[in-house]
Design a protein that fits this description.
Elements (H helix, E strand, L loop, with lengths): L48 H23 L7 H20 L4 H18 L2 H21 L7 H24 L6 H23 L7 H28 L2 H18 L5 H18 L5 H5 L3 H8 L9 H30 L4 H10 L13
């Protein structure tokens, strides 16, 4: 036997490694074609939230100047209508942006409705635009508020809501609607309440987010609203002559002495609910259900100028007197709420105020 080692097969030659082709990290820039004479497309930067809010405030200020010029009167006759359309469009955009909707779509629809109402000069379109402007102003005044830790901050939020509604009142009469005053007030108040509760249903996490306190607040607010409206309607239709005469004498005395008489629904329900709701929202989300009744303050302000028999000064004084009485009642409600459910002692109350800070989006940010 041969002792030589068996021959081994030759190993195959190593295959050349394929290196992946390196793609250029930077793509070649596309230059505009100068031969064809076409200019490059410029993309405008998207403005931020603060810029949009600043533009909206600027539009509202200019529109307010146009509305005031129509009251004086100064300038052409079409100026108040243009101001009313600008306020209605801006308020619609702000309400849709605040509630997480599509502001461009709804603002375009509001602008289209306003332009058609002015161009066609139809009473139905003018009245419809006035109703939508009044309701949107009332709801936006409530939705634009933020939580308040103290009573002073809650009073500031209430004042802001009333100012927004007052500008909406000027825009409402800027469309020059032909309405029955009592029916117009009831319709705008009912639609504002419906829209506010639909939005609050989403903000307050539905009915199961009410809780015991929220349920009590809603029931009490509903009872006050029903009693106020029912008492006024029953008194107007079936009240005795002596009772109606005595009440009218009190109203006349207030108008002659103070210059105006506060609206009961604003003073008794709307302003206290808005103040207490903003104060509660800093601690619990059930405060949104209380704030929904704040449209009982903003809706009467937004439709206050629809009555031609009341002067502008009397309307302003009526709003101020109603706000003053409502703030006093709201302060009493807040103190009672803290006394019943809050901590004992001044130091404990200070600590509770410092710790109250439920997270919520800022005023210029979407709530949803």
């Amino acid at each position: 036997m041969s002792r030589t080692a068996p021959r081994r097969r030759a190993d195959p030659p190593p295959r050349p490694e394929r290196r992946p082709e390196r793609r250029s990290e930077r793509r070649p820039e596309r230059r505009p074609r100068d031969e064809a004479g076409t200019a490059p497309r410029l993309r405008l930067p998207d403005p931020g939230g603060r810029t949009k809010v600043s533009i909206a405030w600027g539009v509202v200020v200019l529109a307010l100047g146009a509305l005031v010029a129509g009251i004086v009167p100064v300038g052409p006759g079409w100026l108040p209508g243009v101001g009313a359309v600008a306020v209605a469009t801006t308020y619609t955009w702000a309400l849709a942006a605040r509630t997480g909707g599509r502001p461009q779509v709804f603002a375009a629809l509001a602008l289209l409705l306003g332009v058609l109402a002015l161009a066609l000069d139809d009473d139905a379109l003018r009245t419809g635009a006035a109703v939508l402007t009044c309701v949107g102003s009332a709801v936006l005044g409530v939705m634009a508020t933020v939580p308040a830790r103290r009573f002073g901050e809650a009073a500031r939020e209430c004042g802001l809501a009333l100012v927004i509604a007052a500008v909406g009142a000027l825009a409402t009469v800027g469309f020059e609607p032909r309405v029955a005053v009592v029916r117009f007030e009831y319709v705008t108040l009912g639609l504002a309440l419906l829209a506010a509760f639909l939005l609050v249903h989403r903000l307050g996490a539905g009915l199961h987010g009410l809780g015991r306190r929220g349920l009590v607040a809603v029931l009490v607010g509903t009872a006050l609203l029903a009693v106020t409206l029912a008492y006024a309607e029953l008194l107007r239709r079936y009240g005795t002559a002596g009772l109606v005469t005595s009440l009218l004498d009190a109203v006349r005395w207030s108008r002659d002495t103070l210059g105006a008489f506060p609206r009961p629904i604003e003073a008794v329900l709307g302003v206290p609910a808005l103040v207490w709701g903003c104060h509660m929202r800093a601690r619990r989300r059930q405060g949104w259900w209380v704030c929904a009744f704040g449209v009982c303050a903003t809706a009467p302000v937004a439709n206050s100028l629809a009555n031609p028999s009341i002067s502008l000064l009397e309307c302003a004084l009526s709003v101020l007197y109603g706000a003053a009485v409502g703030l006093l009642l709201g302060y009493a409600v807040i103190r009672a709420d803290l006394a019943l459910t809050g901590p004992r002692g001044r130091r404990s109350r200070r600590a509770e105020e410092a710790a109250a800070g439920r997270p919520e989006p800022r005023r210029a940010e979407a709530l949803l």
